[in-house]
Amino acid sequence: MNTWNLLLHFLIIFDLVAFGIYFGGDILFTAISKVQKKSKKDDDLDLYDFEIETAPQKRSLCVDSIRMLYSGEIDEFVEKELLPDAAETMNALSEAEKTAVSLLLKAYIGFLSEEATVDEQSFPMVKELLSYTQGSKEDGEKDAIDCLMEDTVSRTHRHREYYNNYQRYQLMQVDKERVIMACNIIINDLIGRLYRYDYRFGYDITLASEHSIAKKLSDNWQNEWEVEDYEAGDC
After folding, report:
1. CB atoms within 10 A of CB 73
2. What's in the keyword line of the UniProt record (predicted)?
3. CB of 216 within 8 A of CB of 129?
């Protein structure tokens, strides 16, 4: 009888110890897992914050870059995203010419971002503006770009920053031909990298719109030649 009692007590004690070890181990393992998971999560957050702080993401140039710009982003876009990729061209210019290139590109990109239709907010349209830009002009002479800028400002009654940049460019005493050539090289190189097709395909469709920048440039250029032909005929 005593033997059975001892055996029964032993079994009870053994079961209690086994249950204690089982449930205690499970609770301990769960607690350790939570601590490790929290520690790993904190490490991941610290690493992520460190990467954001030390290596901010740069917006890549693309065919829609101008369409995605806000009015306050033009200067930063030209200075930090466009011109750094054109270091070879910029290094061939004087400091004054570099400033003129920056002002002219800011003026044209800002103008397209603010005033052009969505279809014309593109780098090929910047090239189109450059093609109508005259380097040397006599006193009082205006090219198609001058007329376009002045007409837009007078029509909208808004003195945008792009127009200020254009006026600053006009006042600079630099070789405008070299500046325009540098801008053309920069935009041509950019178009060559971004566009995988002939960007001029279907481009003349925009001429049908009365709000088309290309149409206004073409009209201004045609009017300019008609005036010159008329004056030559009078002579």
Report:
1. 15
2. Membrane, Transmembrane, Transmembrane helix
3. no
Q: What is the DSSP string of the chain?
A: -HHHHHHHHHHHHHHHHHHHHHHHHHHHHHHHHHHHHHHHHHHHHHHHHHHHHHSPPPPPP-TTTTTT--GGGHHHHIIIIIGGGGHHHHTTS-HHHHHHHHHHHHHHHHHHHHHS-GGG-SHHHHHHHHHT--S---TT---HHHHHHHHHHHHHT---HHHHHHHHHHH--S-HHHHHHHHHHHHHHHHHHH-SS-TTTTGGGGGGSTT-HHHHHHHHHHHHHHHHHHHHHH-
Q: Tell me the two tokens of residue 193.
A: 């990298």
Q: What is the pLDDT of residue 166?
A: 94
Confidence bin at 42 (pLDDT 50/70/90): low
Residue matched to tokens 């369409």: 67
Site of tokens 């003195």: 159
Task: Name the residue with tokens 């770009």.
Answer: 145
**What is residue 34's predicted lDDT score, i.e. its pLDDT?**
63
> Are 115 and 152 contacting, i.e. CB atoms less than 8 angstroms apart?
yes
Reference 208, options 117, 91, 114, 74; nearest CA is 117
